[in-house]
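Suppose you are handed a protein chain with no further information: no name, no annotation, nothing but its sequence. What can you learn? This example shows the usual starting point.
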Amino acid sequence: MIEKILLAESGTGKAAEMLKTLMEIPTFKAANVTVLHVVTPQTTTEAMTEKWEEGGKILANTIQTLGLDPAKSNSVMRAGDPKDIVLRVADEIDADLIIMGSRGLKRIQSILENSVSQYVFQLASRTMLLVKDEIYIKKINRIMVAMDKSEAAQETLRMALNILRDIKGGQLILVHTNPDMKLKPDEIAKNAEEDPILIPAIAEAKRMGIPYKAVSPVGKPGERICQAAEELNVDLLMLGSPDRRPSIAKGLPDLDRLLGQSLSDYVRVYANCPVMLVRTAAA
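A reasonable first move is to predict its three-dimensional structure. Written in structure tokens, the prediction is:
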């Protein structure tokens, strides 16, 4: 359940616009929202003062634009490295969801260019909603959930169903990709309704009376998920993203994600819609 949202607002990008769209959905309306702006250190006192004043204006404009309930919203401005401050504030307020803008930088490029969203994605233990700068924010009607056998996928499905149950005309799109290098032709479901991974999810959607569509493409998971999202005009793509690091290494980046080898990293970069990465702890 989403009760506390942290919006990391830089003054550019589409993160605030995305939050405003989400706040139209009953699931998110009751949430407490913290809007954070981070002022990066400057070389002179004058420059720092100017950036601080600019940050205050950004926060005020964002709060006004979002039309948030003063009793359920808070604005925070901190000075420091945005990567560290976002993580710190998320922990302070115990955020259920972090919303951030993203340039959608690819693999090692995001490290070399000091990507804030990529860094936070590495180290946060919380669900993140990444909104690329160039995408068009639409009203949320069609939500795609990428399914597999993992608990992360099941948690993502539960969250998507909880969101969709209050959206009139909403549709759940279930996708499970079958990598052709792992399955023989006779092992591939003839249609998505027969896909054993999707059958329980379909049953749950039917039980809740939520319209659904199931797709089971063959091919590389990342590519096919992004392709299906584009073809089906998806408004929000949700993907389980378990934290696979042992507890002793929680402060260290997941190297698969760091180097861009994970499915969630591929989708983060290439999907043409907002991507919610539902973080669950590894079993």
